[in-house]
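Suppose you are handed a protein chain with no further information: no name, no annotation, nothing but its sequence. What can you learn? This example shows the usual starting point.
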Amino acid sequence: MYYSLRFPLPLTVHRTRRLTFSMLKRRRLEYFCCYAQSSVREDDEEEEEEKEESFRDRGFSIVVERYGNGASKRYVLNDETPLQGLLEERDSKHDDGCRGSNLSDTTIFWVPDVVKDFVLPAGFPGSVSDDYLEYMLLQFPTNVTGWICNALVTSSLLKAVGVGSFSGTTAAASAAAIRWVSKDGIGALGRLLIGGRFGSLFDDDPKQWRMYADFIGSAGSIFDLATQLYPAYFLPLASTGNLAKAVARGLKDPSFRVIQNHFAISGNLGGIAAKEEVWEVAAQLLGLGIGILILDTPGVVKSFPILSLTWLSVRLVHLWLRYQSLIVLRFNTVNVKRARILVQSHVLYSVVPGYVDGNRQESILIWQRFMKPRIIFGAPLEEISGLDKSVSKVKELLKIYKKEQYILTLRKWEKDAEFLVSFKVGATSTAILRCLWHAYWLHENMDDGDGDGVLNKLKRSLYEMDSKFEDFMQKLGRAGWNILESNLKVPNHILIDEV
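A reasonable first move is to predict its three-dimensional structure. Written in structure tokens, the prediction is:
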């Protein structure tokens, strides 16, 4: 549904910016274009309201399923037909036509949404400061020039260590430099992919992704070791290894920044990061020294099996130490994994463990989606309606969950139940906690009242949650958990809006 927007012309001019006649003329043109488009949308809005009113007069309900890319699907709940939705594509012309004068809007309004989602943080521009985009636009060419210089000096470095000296020409050094830079470039694609595609995952579970980074980096090192056996395939092997290590770095850096922010309880993030560099550099110098001593051992250098076995032994110790360092972290914020632990404890024993015990029970390696019971967030209406696309079931669920910010139902399997959760527009992190408590109570009491239907079980479990959820929240605060800040994010790829 569209709304009429009217933007007033600026009445004051800041001293730091002079407006020329052409700029004023362009602003007036943007203003009148936006006003004209809003007027056209008023007519479209009235027409849509008339259609919806006619459906409601005939006793039909209307539910809109809104997607993260701006599109939506409209369902008219008619008991006479199976559940069917009408897909409504996003009108990018209307969205781009009425932009404000903000730099974050006017500079990139022409960029496709898929590119914006890839390069900009979730919730942009509201989730970042006003100077974010301007800084990044200047930072990009700065980094480009830096890497150009890096590519140019690589040839000199390789020539200095003897590459091309035996042939008597610099062509060999240049060719080696091109191969070396190409290897680094192919590897950098991994960081590009991780940062663009998975940027929103690290706040939720930095311990898990930091551990996975070391696993992937270890796999990349195997390809580097293989270059000694197959020197003719240096470029593909080294590039694959660099790609894996770049993916690992793409997981490691943002995860560790979250961990650093956890350490900085006094707002001293810069000091924490600086001292971490001291620890890191000291460890690097010591590790390089020991590595040089190992390489100086003739038996290790000449025998590839001994070299590989030595690397494997040290790497296994490295992974074990990494795991030990991560399990000592004690976050007092609630993510989905820790929320599952807390909710299950309250459902079973009416007790909420403290944040020290909660972090100790949290599994770093397992993914949330593989935990039991299985809970799928962001399920569409067509899955909730069942295999028969039952409109009556959807209407009954909307009625049951009228006061909730989510809709939960279950699919009964032979051994385990699979819960489906759809969130409504405006749902908050509390809705995630409520649906988790709801799902765990159903899972623990699945066998009680086998004669009851699914809808009756849902009603009963909602009653139990209403009577006990407030006690859960109070015990959560008393146990030391930070209930004001949460890493529980409502998935916005599908949201339900009941018109």
